[in-house]
Amino acid sequence: MQPMVPKRMFFTRGVGKHRQKLQSFEVALRDAGIAPLNLVKVSSIFPPGCKIVPKRSGLKNLNPGEITYCVLADSSTSEPNRLVSAGVGLAIPARGEHYGYISEYHGFGMNSRKTADLVEDMAASMLASTLGLEFDPDADYDERREIYRMSGQIVTSRACVQTAEGDKNGLWTTVVAAAVFLFD
After folding, report:
1. pLDDT per residue over 109-148, tens digit each?
2. Which of 64, 6, 165, 183 lies closest to 174, judged by CA?
3. What's the pTM value of the predicted model, to 2 decimals?
4. Per-domain residue ranges of the chain
5. What CATH number has the domain spanning 8-182?
6. Which residues contact 113 (CB under 8 A, 6 or more apart)?
7. Residue 150 burial (CB < 10 Å; 0-12/13-18/19+)?
Protein backbone atom coordinates (compact mmCIF):
# COMPACT_ATOMS: atom_id res chain seq x y z
CA MET A 1 0.00 0.00 0.00
CA GLN A 2 1.30 3.45 -0.95
CA PRO A 3 1.89 5.85 1.94
CA MET A 4 -0.74 8.58 2.12
CA VAL A 5 1.37 11.74 2.18
CA PRO A 6 -0.26 14.96 0.98
CA LYS A 7 1.50 16.75 -1.87
CA ARG A 8 -0.43 20.02 -1.59
CA MET A 9 -2.50 21.96 0.93
CA PHE A 10 -4.74 25.02 0.96
CA PHE A 11 -6.29 27.21 3.64
CA THR A 12 -9.93 28.17 3.89
CA ARG A 13 -12.32 29.75 6.37
CA GLY A 14 -16.00 30.56 6.77
CA VAL A 15 -18.89 31.81 8.91
CA GLY A 16 -22.40 30.40 9.27
CA LYS A 17 -25.57 31.41 11.13
CA HIS A 18 -28.71 29.37 11.68
CA ARG A 19 -31.32 28.48 14.32
CA GLN A 20 -29.69 25.05 14.76
CA LYS A 21 -26.04 24.61 15.76
CA LEU A 22 -25.39 21.80 13.28
CA GLN A 23 -26.86 23.78 10.42
CA SER A 24 -24.79 26.86 11.33
CA PHE A 25 -21.71 24.59 11.08
CA GLU A 26 -22.89 23.41 7.65
CA VAL A 27 -23.37 27.02 6.50
CA ALA A 28 -19.85 27.86 7.72
CA LEU A 29 -18.45 24.90 5.78
CA ARG A 30 -20.34 26.12 2.68
CA ASP A 31 -18.88 29.58 3.14
CA ALA A 32 -15.43 27.96 3.30
CA GLY A 33 -16.18 25.89 0.16
CA ILE A 34 -15.71 22.49 1.81
CA ALA A 35 -19.28 21.49 2.74
CA PRO A 36 -19.74 18.83 0.01
CA LEU A 37 -16.72 16.87 1.26
CA ASN A 38 -16.46 14.09 3.86
CA LEU A 39 -13.99 15.78 6.18
CA VAL A 40 -11.60 13.75 8.32
CA LYS A 41 -9.79 15.70 11.02
CA VAL A 42 -6.10 14.92 11.31
CA SER A 43 -3.37 16.15 13.61
CA SER A 44 -0.72 18.72 13.10
CA ILE A 45 2.06 17.65 10.73
CA PHE A 46 2.85 19.59 7.53
CA PRO A 47 4.54 16.97 5.30
CA PRO A 48 8.02 17.56 3.87
CA GLY A 49 7.81 18.90 0.32
CA CYS A 50 4.11 19.77 0.59
CA LYS A 51 3.17 22.86 -1.43
CA ILE A 52 0.64 25.49 -0.40
CA VAL A 53 -1.79 26.28 -3.21
CA PRO A 54 -4.54 28.88 -3.55
CA LYS A 55 -7.97 27.83 -2.29
CA ARG A 56 -9.51 28.11 -5.75
CA SER A 57 -7.10 25.65 -7.37
CA GLY A 58 -7.30 23.31 -4.38
CA LEU A 59 -11.09 23.15 -4.50
CA LYS A 60 -10.98 22.34 -8.23
CA ASN A 61 -9.21 19.07 -7.37
CA LEU A 62 -11.89 17.85 -4.95
CA ASN A 63 -15.15 16.09 -5.77
CA PRO A 64 -18.43 16.04 -3.82
CA GLY A 65 -18.43 13.17 -1.35
CA GLU A 66 -14.66 12.75 -1.45
CA ILE A 67 -12.99 11.77 1.81
CA THR A 68 -10.80 14.77 2.53
CA TYR A 69 -8.22 15.13 5.28
CA CYS A 70 -7.83 18.47 7.04
CA VAL A 71 -6.75 20.22 10.19
CA LEU A 72 -10.02 21.88 11.21
CA ALA A 73 -10.83 24.42 13.90
CA ASP A 74 -14.40 25.47 14.64
CA SER A 75 -16.23 27.40 17.32
CA SER A 76 -19.91 28.19 17.87
CA THR A 77 -22.07 30.40 20.06
CA SER A 78 -25.73 31.27 20.44
CA GLU A 79 -24.95 34.19 22.77
CA PRO A 80 -25.59 37.60 21.16
CA ASN A 81 -22.38 39.57 20.53
CA ARG A 82 -20.06 36.87 21.95
CA LEU A 83 -16.83 36.84 19.92
CA VAL A 84 -15.94 33.39 18.53
CA SER A 85 -12.74 32.52 16.75
CA ALA A 86 -11.20 29.61 14.88
CA GLY A 87 -7.73 29.53 13.42
CA VAL A 88 -5.03 27.30 11.99
CA GLY A 89 -1.35 28.26 12.01
CA LEU A 90 1.56 26.88 10.02
CA ALA A 91 5.31 26.86 10.61
CA ILE A 92 7.58 25.62 7.81
CA PRO A 93 11.19 24.55 8.39
CA ALA A 94 14.08 25.80 6.26
CA ARG A 95 15.18 22.25 5.48
CA GLY A 96 12.76 20.83 2.93
CA GLU A 97 13.25 17.26 4.12
CA HIS A 98 11.95 18.13 7.61
CA TYR A 99 8.25 18.31 8.45
CA GLY A 100 6.51 21.42 9.70
CA TYR A 101 3.65 21.96 12.13
CA ILE A 102 0.04 23.06 11.84
CA SER A 103 -1.79 24.20 14.96
CA GLU A 104 -5.46 24.86 15.54
CA TYR A 105 -7.41 26.97 18.02
CA HIS A 106 -11.11 27.39 18.65
CA GLY A 107 -12.41 29.67 21.37
CA PHE A 108 -14.00 32.86 22.55
CA GLY A 109 -13.09 36.49 23.13
CA MET A 110 -10.05 36.80 20.84
CA ASN A 111 -9.97 39.02 17.78
CA SER A 112 -8.43 37.99 14.46
CA ARG A 113 -4.96 39.39 15.17
CA LYS A 114 -4.67 37.73 18.58
CA THR A 115 -5.94 34.42 17.21
CA ALA A 116 -3.49 34.60 14.28
CA ASP A 117 -0.58 35.35 16.61
CA LEU A 118 -1.59 32.48 18.89
CA VAL A 119 -1.85 29.81 16.18
CA GLU A 120 1.37 30.97 14.49
CA ASP A 121 3.11 30.95 17.87
CA MET A 122 1.87 27.44 18.69
CA ALA A 123 2.98 26.04 15.32
CA ALA A 124 6.36 27.81 15.46
CA SER A 125 6.97 26.73 19.05
CA MET A 126 6.19 23.08 18.26
CA LEU A 127 8.54 23.21 15.28
CA ALA A 128 11.25 25.03 17.24
CA SER A 129 11.18 22.44 20.02
CA THR A 130 11.40 19.62 17.44
CA LEU A 131 14.40 21.34 15.82
CA GLY A 132 16.09 21.74 19.21
CA LEU A 133 16.01 25.55 19.25
CA GLU A 134 16.55 27.10 22.66
CA PHE A 135 13.85 29.58 23.61
CA ASP A 136 11.96 30.82 26.65
CA PRO A 137 8.37 29.57 26.29
CA ASP A 138 7.21 32.36 28.60
CA ALA A 139 8.79 35.11 26.49
CA ASP A 140 6.60 37.32 24.30
CA TYR A 141 5.87 35.80 20.89
CA ASP A 142 7.52 38.72 19.05
CA GLU A 143 10.74 38.01 20.97
CA ARG A 144 10.55 34.28 20.21
CA ARG A 145 9.67 34.96 16.56
CA GLU A 146 12.92 36.92 16.26
CA ILE A 147 14.87 33.98 17.77
CA TYR A 148 13.20 31.59 15.31
CA ARG A 149 13.94 33.91 12.37
CA MET A 150 17.58 34.44 13.38
CA SER A 151 18.16 30.69 13.79
CA GLY A 152 17.60 30.24 10.05
CA GLN A 153 15.77 26.98 10.76
CA ILE A 154 12.19 28.21 10.45
CA VAL A 155 11.46 29.74 7.05
CA THR A 156 7.99 31.09 7.56
CA SER A 157 4.83 30.98 9.59
CA ARG A 158 1.32 32.02 8.69
CA ALA A 159 -2.27 31.78 9.87
CA CYS A 160 -5.80 31.41 8.53
CA VAL A 161 -8.34 32.80 10.98
CA GLN A 162 -12.09 33.42 11.09
CA THR A 163 -13.87 35.40 13.81
CA ALA A 164 -17.45 36.57 14.20
CA GLU A 165 -19.74 38.07 16.81
CA GLY A 166 -22.69 35.99 17.93
CA ASP A 167 -25.90 36.89 16.12
CA LYS A 168 -27.75 39.70 17.90
CA ASN A 169 -31.00 37.67 17.74
CA GLY A 170 -29.47 34.52 19.25
CA LEU A 171 -29.00 32.43 16.11
CA TRP A 172 -26.13 29.97 16.32
CA THR A 173 -23.00 31.54 14.86
CA THR A 174 -20.20 29.18 13.80
CA VAL A 175 -16.72 29.96 12.49
CA VAL A 176 -14.36 27.50 10.81
CA ALA A 177 -10.76 27.61 9.64
CA ALA A 178 -9.04 24.70 7.91
CA ALA A 179 -5.86 23.50 6.29
CA VAL A 180 -7.06 21.05 3.62
CA PHE A 181 -4.75 18.35 2.24
CA LEU A 182 -4.58 17.18 -1.39
CA PHE A 183 -2.93 13.95 -2.51
CA ASP A 184 -2.62 14.41 -6.29
Report:
1. 999 999 999 999 999 989 988 888 877 777 877 777 777 7
2. 165
3. 0.93
4. 8-182
5. 3.50.20.10
6. none
7. exposed
